[in-house]
Structures are given as C-alpha cells and as structure tokens.
Amino acid sequence: MTPDEILSRVLYKDQDVIVLDKPAGLAVHAGPNSPDHLELYLGALAFGWAEMPKLAHRLDRDTSGCLILGRHAKAIKRLGKMFEHRRVEKVYWSVSHGSPAADSGTVDAPLLKVSARGQGWRIKVDPAGQPSITDWSVLGRSDGLSWIEWRPRTGRTHQIRIHAQYLGCPLLGDAYYGPDPEPKVRLHLLARAVAFPALAPSKDPVRVTAPPPEHMVEALRRCGWSPAS
C-alpha cells in the first residue's frame, strides 16, 4: 500500500471520525507476521492535523470493508462507549460454502478462545465462552455457495467466521475454520456497512457502505448480486 492508496479508500470523513474501506490482507496492527499494517499509514489520514487518528475497533487482516477511526481522543472515547453499549450497527456480507435450510435466523453460540502449545490460538463454540449472537439472512444461492448477510449483536473475535461454521456454511477462503486449508482465494468476508450516531449532536447519524472487494465480485455475482444491490 501507499499513502495515496489509503487516502483513496476513505469512505467518510468529518471532524470526529473517518470510515475507511480497509483492504483485505492488510493487518490493522503491527505484529511479527505483519510488516505492512495500517498503523504505518495513519499519518496520511491525519489530513494536516497534529494528532493522528486511532482505531475505534478492528477487523481481521483478511476481512475488507468499513473500519471506523476516531480523529481525536474525545472521539475515540465516545466511540468506545458506543461500541460498549451496542450503538454501532455493523453489517457483514460473506460468500459461504453450502447454504442454510432456512432463509434467515439467529446463531446464539458462546465463543471461547483456546490455545495449544506451538499451534497458536483459535476460537471455538463452547458453553464456557462469552455470549455471542449473530442474526443472519440469505441474500442469494448458487452452485453450492450462498451469499449471506450477517448482523452481529456482539463483537467477539472471529464471531462471524465461527458462527458460519457452526451454521454449516463456512466462509469461502477461510483457511482456519473452513474446508480450504490452502485457499486459492482470499477470505470472502466484507464489513459491508456501519451506522452510528454522529458525535456532533446537530448532525444526522453516520451511515457508510463499502463496495465488495474485487476478489468477492465473481462469487457474489454467481449468487445473484449486481452492482445495484
């Protein structure tokens, strides 16, 4: 990525927040396996301000779409309270292997983080885990794939990926929780939209939608999506 490429992915900006269309494959934080990460480009997103924006939440490296940043300390604090009190509405799209029998429903399955020596960590459904709830609806089906919209009520790590697996419809390209141990395609998961109250009381609520990334377009089209969707 370059600073100009990051700037071209700004979906919304006001004096308090920025909503960025995060590209798939870009980690949001530095790490041993993340030499390229979003924190390297936050200076470009300052737009001349002395203070760089900060992440209000996070997305997995391989998830693309709407990522909210606060432009100053007060904004970060208020956004944090909005997430805590579930006032931020998040909508995700996936292309999944298989299809649920119903057209819509809710997954209510607690999630637990487990570690194994030398194997890192994973998330699994476990009664001892944290409460995790996701509403879902099928938007299209074709050739063993389904286009599903997910609306998480909670914000657990890998929640949609695990709930999709639990539903019997693991995400296309999911190397950890799906049938693609060495996928030839990227993870088909898009943070499609976010909506939250504007931090300025006089403004309308912020509602932002991200376009499907290039690697998801073909599978979405097969399931009935069109650019007008």
UniProtKB/TrEMBL annotation:
InterPro entries: PsdUridine_synth_cat_dom_sf, PsdUridine_synth_RluA-like_CS, PsdUridine_synth_RsuA/RluA, RluA_PseudoU_synthase. Signal peptide: none annotated. GO terms for molecular function: catalytic activity, acting on RNA; pseudouridine synthase activity; RNA binding. It comes from the Bacteria. Residues 16-165 form the Pseudouridine synthase RsuA/RluA-like domain. GO terms for biological process: enzyme-directed rRNA pseudouridine synthesis. Pfam families: PseudoU_synth_2. Keywords: Isomerase. Belongs to the pseudouridine synthase RluA family. PANTHER family: MITOCHONDRIAL RNA PSEUDOURIDINE SYNTHASE (PTHR21600), RIBOSOMAL LARGE SUBUNIT PSEUDOURIDINE SYNTHASE D (PTHR21600:SF44). This is Hypothetical pseudouridine synthase in lpd 3'region.
